[in-house]
Amino acid sequence: MLIDARTLSAEETIETEVCIVGTGPAGLSLARELAGQDFRVCLLESGGLDLPDPDTESLAEVETEGDFVQVFPDRRNRRFGGNSSYWGINISKGQLGLRHVPLDDVDFEKRDGFPYSGWPFERDHLVSYYERAQKVCKLGPFTYEAEDWEDANSPQLPFIGNRVTTRMFQFGPGAAFYKEYRDEINRSGNVTTYLHANAVELETEETAQTVTRVRVACLQGNQFWVKAKIVILAAGGVESAHLLLLSNKTQKAGLGNQNDLVGRFFMDHPLVYGGLFVPSNPKMFDSMALYDLRQLSKGTVMGGLSFTNEAMRREQLLNVSMLLLPRPIKYQSSEAVSSLKALFSSRGYKEGAKGTLEHLNKVVTGLDEIAGSFYDKLTKKDLPFWPNLSQGGWSNLPNKERIYNVFEVLHQTEQTPHPDNRVMLGDGLDKLGRRKAKMQTCWREDDIQGVKRAQAVFAEEIARAGLGRYEIEQDGDLPVISTAGTSHHLGTTRMDVDPKQGVVDENCKVHGVSNLFIASSAVFPTGGYGNPTLTIVALAIRIADRVKATMNTQTQTAKQQVESAS
């Protein structure tokens, strides 16, 4: 059942067994798992079913401090379905979605040279949940190895040794969450969804060991309460930490923040423009379909290069992917175009006025070249298809070796956890009267050097295998940033069995709070390079299993008590 919370009377109290804050992939996966159970579930959504109005969208604004910030309101979607309604990869005609990939073995391990790495369990523990998440996300079989997707006409690149390998991405539709699962949950008799309902505070008893109720406010002025036995935050990597910090009436530093960890260790997946991979044989383009975004009978996939687990362990490599986008023979990375890229990227590195002016001068003197390049791309009918991360299909073109001669390289990169990259409470107030979230982040030297080392290894292995050459492009002595983040907000309520090292325990329950869980990429201790949604859904299903077991035990105990009393 869907209810517009703006129609509720002021100060009303809704009683339920389980309260879920957020209706993104995590919240909806939880609700689906709990639908049909013998207990009530309340689902709170800040927005409505359509695009958020400006006031609702403004609630996602953050204050920023630092030189490597990219957290925008439209990438923290306050509407039913969360960011699933924002996904924009063209999977098939009329169907938009997202790329999915599980984390690697090494991402769960405590790694030499990587402080704060390591999950409380190995990847194998999560495999059964990954398999269930695979179905929830409407994906193909749970296999991401190239061997299971290649064929004689589309083989994987033949690298020598065991440093570089091909791994697959799979693609699933966003509408599965914001439309199909909305309808499914709406038909469930035990789940009630409240729209335009903003969770603003978690209230506890005097020892802060149990959440007693959630205070909820509407932008129109009325507020109400949700009293629940179990509360689950599924509000994303920024808002989950923000809500804990705002809930500070009992614990002054914020709920679950007794060790000053809430909001720390923020991570994302910076996207780096790497340069050009020039194949040694032009005919290579006719056999590279494995690296194109395309539909197969088993599912929609795209291959990319990455490091083996063995290489990452042995050489202490950052987990970095290498995505290949073919470019036409006319494509050139001129000095003017390179300076244009560097001009924008240099903001993240604080090159200063001199460096910026040098780039600007090259751009100005090369304006005719830049304008001509863009004009050609936009107007000439004979220019070939220009694939990107949201649009594939180039491998279906005839005479590819006559069209393309280079691959443009993009790296989706791991960002290592650091306590000073964090979410805090800012000074400004939002339209609900709450202190805004404030982001304090920068790209650390270890990450910069890690990307450069990764690029060097890719270049070495491409040359060693005789595949061609990788011409790495840099901004001075720095990697060229395409975007500082890909809206994968990770790590702000990290998982660890030790409350001095993590906000939540191995079951995603907040340390010291008996009935509060977090279902979000906020709990990731590390994040690898891959899109986090599949892992988010797997962890949400894992939490749901625990909640069902807890509630069923409580129900059974209550029945036994009634029978004993009678």
Query: What portion of the residues fall into strands of 2 or more residues?
Result: 15-25%
Strand order of the largest sheet: 1-9-4-3-13-24
| End-to-end separation | 36 Å
According to CATH, the fold-level topology of the domain at 1-87 and 174-267 and 418-439 and 488-566 is: FAD/NAD(P)-binding domain
Q: Low-confidence stretches at least 5 residues in length (pLDDT < 50)?
A: 333-340, 342-371
Structural class: alpha/beta
* CATH H-level homologous superfamily name of the domain at 1-87 and 174-267 and 418-439 and 488-566: FAD/NAD(P)-binding domain
Question: What is the β-strand count?
Answer: 24
Please describe the biggest sheet, giving its number of strands, its sense, and whether it closes into a barrel. Answer: 6 strands, parallel
- Gyration radius, in Å: 25 Å
Q: Kindly state the mean pLDDT as a whole number?
A: 89
Number of helices: 12
Tell me which CATH architecture of the domain at 1-87 and 174-267 and 418-439 and 488-566 applies here.
3-Layer(bba) Sandwich
CATH class of the domain at 1-87 and 174-267 and 418-439 and 488-566: Alpha Beta
Binned, the helix content reads 25-40%
Write down the overall geometry.
globular
Structural account:
With 566 residues, the chain is of the alpha/beta class. The protein has a six-stranded parallel sheet, with helices on one face. Residues 333-340 and 342-371 have low confidence and may be disordered. It has helices at 25-34, 54-58, 123-136, 175-186, 236-246, 309-315, 335-345, 352-365, 367-379, 400-403, 445-464, 533-565; strands at 2-4, 13-15, 18-21, 41-44, 62-66, 89-92, 95-100, 164-173, 191-195, 198-204, 211-217, 223-227, 230-233, 271-279, 294-296, 299-307, 323-328, 404-412, 422-429, 435-441, 468-472, 474-475, 478-483, 516-518. It has a domain at 1-87 and 174-267 and 418-439 and 488-566: FAD/NAD(P)-binding domain, CATH 3.50.50.60. GO terms for molecular function: FAD binding; oxidoreductase activity, acting on CH-OH group of donors. InterPro entries: FAD-bd, FAD/NAD-bd_sf, GMC_OxRtase_C, P2Ox-like. Keywords: FAD, Flavoprotein, Oxidoreductase. Belongs to the GMC oxidoreductase family.
